[in-house]
Task: inverse folding
């Protein structure tokens, strides 16, 4: 069964510092990987995705993520955090299972950027 | 092109009543996912549907819950005889197909409160 792990429930970082939100996955076959952000009382917004090609993927709002096949990881990063980045972040994987492509989400990581 | 539309945004039901949550996918999207999110928790997969077909309902409780995505009209998540534990935010997402390189787009959610 495919799974996604976000090992940190919460990440605190000072404004202006680099941030990393961790994600590891387990699938059979090649994964398609996604990051979403959720602001309070809102739906999820798509940030970026890895399908194939360059392991470093750039997305919205200055975020990027690095796909590491050997470590089965897809960590989200940003060089300089903003207070407005404070939100809930979800990692997701899409892969073939049981004859169709299933999407599985991690449990989410709350990012708190401290002014 | 309107995004994924969910209605109502807020729904209050008394215990024992029925709740009907609607999701209109983005134009051209034929795949719909439903997720449940409890306060301060991550997303829990409920069901994955294509037009007129349920592909995966492994996350949906066997009793009281049902979902459909008819050929015409929105997808409906129906909860019969609601209980307090059904109070949550229910999110719908749609995608154009089963291709792995397409991200899912989320609605703003329906917040169900059972009193």
Result:
């Amino acid at each position: 069964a495919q799974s996604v792990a976000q090992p940190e429930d919460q990440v605190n970082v000072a404004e202006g510092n680099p941030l990393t939100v961790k994600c590891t996955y387990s699938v059979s076959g090649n994964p398609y990987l996604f990051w979403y952000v959720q602001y309070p009382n809102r739906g999820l917004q798509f940030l970026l995705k890895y399908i194939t090609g360059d392991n470093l993927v750039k997305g919205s709002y200055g975020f990027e993520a690095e796909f590491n096949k050997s470590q089965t990881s897809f960590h989200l990063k940003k060089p300089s955090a903003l207070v407005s980045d404070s939100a809930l972040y979800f990692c997701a994987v899409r892969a073939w299972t049981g004859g169709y492509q299933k999407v599985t989400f991690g449990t989410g990581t709350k990012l708190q950027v401290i002014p | 092109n309107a995004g994924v539309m969910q209605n109502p945004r807020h729904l209050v039901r008394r215990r024992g009543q029925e709740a009907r949550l609607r999701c209109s996918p983005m134009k051209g999207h034929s795949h719909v996912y439903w997720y449940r999110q409890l306060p301060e928790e991550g997303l829990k997969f409920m069901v994955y549907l294509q037009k007129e077909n349920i592909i995966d309902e492994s996350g949906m409780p066997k009793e009281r819950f049902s979902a459909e995505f008819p050929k015409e009209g929105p997808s409906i998540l129906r909860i019969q005889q609601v209980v307090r534990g059904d109070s949550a935010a229910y999110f719908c997402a749609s995608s154009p197909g089963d291709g792995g390189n397409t991200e899912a787009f989320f609605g703003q959610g329906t917040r169900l409160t059972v009193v």
Remarks:
- The mean pLDDT of chain B is 91.
- Chain B touches chain A through 25 residues (CB under 8 Å).
- The radius of gyration of chain B is 13 Å.
